[in-house]
Amino acid sequence: xxxxxxxxxxxxxxxxxxxxxxxxxxGGVIGASIARELSRYSLNIVLIExxxxxxxxxxxxxxGIIHAGYNADFRTLKGRLxxxxxxxxxxxxxxxxxxxxxIGSLVVGFSGEDLKRLRELKKNGEKNGxxxxxxxxxxxxxxxxxxxxxxxxxxxxxPSAGIISPYKFTIALVDNAVINGVKVLLxxxxxxxRIKERQVCGVITxxxxxxxxxxxxxxxxxxxxxxxxxxxxxxxxxxxGEYQLFDKQWGNLVNHILFPIPTKLSKGILVxxxxxxxxxxxxxxxxxxxxxDPATTRAGIKEVYEGAxxxxxxxxxxxLINSFAGLRADIKERDDFIIEASKKIKGFINVAGIESPGxxxxxxxxxxxxxxxxxxxxxxxxxxxxxxxxxxIETLADQPKFADYLDKTGKWQEIVxxxxxxxxxxCRCEKVSRGEILRAIHQPVPARSLDAxxxxxxxxxxRCQGGFCGxxxxxxxxxxxxxxxxxxxxxxxxxxVLKAETKDMIKETGVKFRDEIRV
Amino acid sequence: xxxxxxxxxxxGGPAGLAVALEAEKxxxxxxxxxxxxxxxxxxxxxxxxxxxxxxxFKEELTGPEYAERFIAKLNDNQIDVKTETMVINITPDxxxxxxxxxxxxxxxxAKTVVxxxxxxxxxxxxxxxxxxxxxxxxxxxxxxxxxxxxxxIPGREVVVLGSGDIGMIMARRMTLEGARVKAVLEIMPxxxxxxxxxxxxxxxxxxxxxxxxxxxRIEGKKRVExxxxxxxxxxLQAIPETKEEIDCDTILLSVGLIPENELTREAGIKLDPVxxxxxxxxxxxxxxxGIFACGNVLHVHDLADFVTEEGEIVGRAVDKYLKxxxxxxxxxxxxxxxxxxxxxVPQHIDFIVPERKKIKIFMRVKKPAERVRINLLDDxxxxxxxxxxxxxxxGEMVSVYLPEALLDDKLKNITIxxxxx
Lengths: 519, 421
Description:
The complex is a heterodimer.
Chain A: H1 3-11, E1 16-19, E2 22-25, H2 29-38, E3 45-48, E4 65-66, H3 77-85, H4 89-96, E5 100-101, E6 105-109, H5 112-127, E7 134-137, H6 139-144, E8 154-158, E9 162-164, H7 166-179, E10 183-185, E11 190-196, E12 199-205, E13 208-211, E14 214-217, H8 223-228, E15 237-246, E16 257-259, E17 270-273, E18 279-282, E19 286-287, H9 298-311, E20 320-330, E21 338-341, E22 348-352, H10 358-380, H11 409-418, E23 425-427, E24 432-433, H12 434-441, H13 450-457, H14 469-481, E25 500-501, H15 504-518
Parallel strand pairs in A: 1-13, 2-3, 2-14, 3-10, 6-16, 14-22
Antiparallel strand pairs in A: 4-9, 5-9, 6-8, 7-8, 11-12, 12-13, 15-18, 15-19, 15-20, 17-18, 21-22, 23-24
Helix pairs in contact in A: 2-7, 2-10, 3-10, 12-13, 12-14
Chain B: E1 2-10, H1 14-25, E2 31-34, E3 50-52, E4 61-62, H2 63-75, E5 80-82, E6 86-90, E7 95-100, E8 104-115, E9 119-121, E10 137-139, H3 140-150, E11 152-153, E12 157-161, H4 165-176, E13 180-186, H5 195-202, E14 209-211, E15 213-219, E16 226-231, E17 244-247, E18 250-253, E19 257-259, H6 262-266, E20 291-293, H7 304-323, E21 328-337, E22 341-345, E23 348-351, E24 359-365, E25 369-377, E26 383-392, E27 398-402, E28 413-420
Parallel strand pairs in B: 1-2, 1-8, 2-5, 8-20, 10-18, 12-13, 12-18, 13-14, 21-28
Antiparallel strand pairs in B: 3-4, 6-7, 7-8, 9-19, 15-16, 16-17, 21-23, 22-24, 24-27, 25-26, 25-28
Helix pairs in contact in B: 1-2, 1-7, 3-4, 4-5
């Protein structure tokens, strides 16, 4: 299936009926990593995602940290898979053209008690095999972080920690998977699992049935609801975390990822630069009931700000550009990921409870799932051969962004000469050209909403938050998708931006309106 | 390609247009005006309401008409204009890099630069209103663009937060389009916009304006469904027992404008933390010689007419700069905001011979007051000048002239304060 066909397929609103060797439920970083890993094999793979884009749940609202791996115990999946994945990110991100910066992290301590905890973490990290962990004290701490709270005394330095854009990483993984033959169905929600003789035989979706003998449940926050359909019982408890993001002139306020001393529930409210030079603070942690669209709260905004101030006392509150919340797919009674084939129904693999360090562990999780799948297939479909494809494409093509060329404008000049769309700047804050927006609309997993454009190009992600470029991007989407501007959404069906053409609304409400004016 | 100009103006709104025309009138040759949008006029083309030009033309015009007066003149002149051209960098030695479709990257060396980039609107995110992040939250100016330029109405049931001018004008505009504006909420006990806008846009249309009120929460999964609003106490904190919910599908924000000074900052020019614009002298020249700023990039104006006036000051000053006919004072006079004054522009006086003898100082007050005097004081508290004002309010700029006699004095500072008469 060519890229264009995939685009066409995604755009189909009609009911369908199709067959697949493997169906992956969920287009978060885990589903994406698994899709890409499995696309190495000659398999017919379908990934379904209920939202209008991939990376719409936990994968878009998190800290974007690739952890060094000193927190978790090596005997747990969390510990093992994090350690295994961390060194992979440089090459993987190079292949996928995703920005990853290994800037290192500091867990900051203020007291003798804290120092004890830092030593424990260091010991655990060393047991896990992490190199170059170091306890830093005194002046050196402030040489590394000049804006750190002057009362800080110690820090555990882990040079192998890094930062990444979690949604860009996810999108790139799926783009690459699509190029390697994976079919992606957006706005396709798994409603039930069809089972025959204790064996999976299909996924029933809002768009129709997909026949398959193997299903991978990577449904994130909703993984428990999917698992229930085959009789597997666990409960996902959404653990909310709120964040704040500051203007990109402040990314250099800190040089590393700064953590407080971790608690049992979380790694605490961190302060870190993002790969786009913004300053990020958060998250707090509290249980919520709702699994979609987490809301920020007045108390949470304050808690995060006060928490971050303990590490960096002078935060640029006047240059706050965004507050957002994310949900971690936590399982209260279990302190580890669930990555295993169902014991009740054949052909069903759960990849659930992937909370932190899920992003950091994603590449190794995908390999582990691939190994489990091989065993499952051997048992249930012995005729299906898992052959490595000879034509697997490891990399994504380079997608130049004007913002990356500001200091090498001569090179960008060549790009504009070939295609004038790259000379028209649509988003002034983040310096995004029309060419980049068009590319996002036509990439393997296409952007069809304002937020999807934002995640791919950063148009609307800056200080004006889309005030200026929003109408322009909406117009480009409408032209490219050949649909009315009234159908363009912020983030999928139901989030249409505009309500009516001018003069149309007054026709509906005109009489009432004229009466009011007479008064 | 390297271009050379005597004057490069960055931004073709009312400020940039005024600079270009006035500079040309005074003899500046070789002028380039750069505009990032498709057309000149800045935000004026989307301001289809009237009220423009009363000060400058002594007649009432709409925004597009006001802009057209200048654009038509510009077209008759020898001023180079490049639209859809985005400036991406300015250096202190006045090298400019810009980009557009036709030329790709442009490298321009200027003898003088005028910054007229205007301002942007403060967002929901910047004021951190808690809640969901659904569709249906717009700054008032963005909603204005959707309706007046694109031809689409962004909402049916509307709550407006903030009583800034664009918010009040959009409350009326949405009503005229058949939408229902349920309330305009203002956290302060007074309107932050022009008095005439409150009367003509809200009172005349029976749109309720609630002072001391704000939105405490936004709800809605895909689209805004409702907001929680509450009265605030003296410290602007919501009073829980006054909370009420309003069903709506749209929120318009008019909670302040921020001068767009990213280029200014990258050129190494420090900003006044209060105005958000560069600090300037009476010629609107920044601390980097030959780089000027005027209009909303310098400080947010209430009327486009005053923007034009400021642009003309700079147009003439650029001419003087290029002809090198300037006489500096040995030490600048600092103008300091005193009691009930938020800011003053210009912030300092550098030249002995002012271009028109009288120098006009623009300012905003912190709180509304009636029957007051604006007093100019020296360091010892002596009144150097005093001006009666019947009413002053934060939504409207106040201006006074510096008495000519003061400029030859050996004054170091002048403090401006509001005092009850």
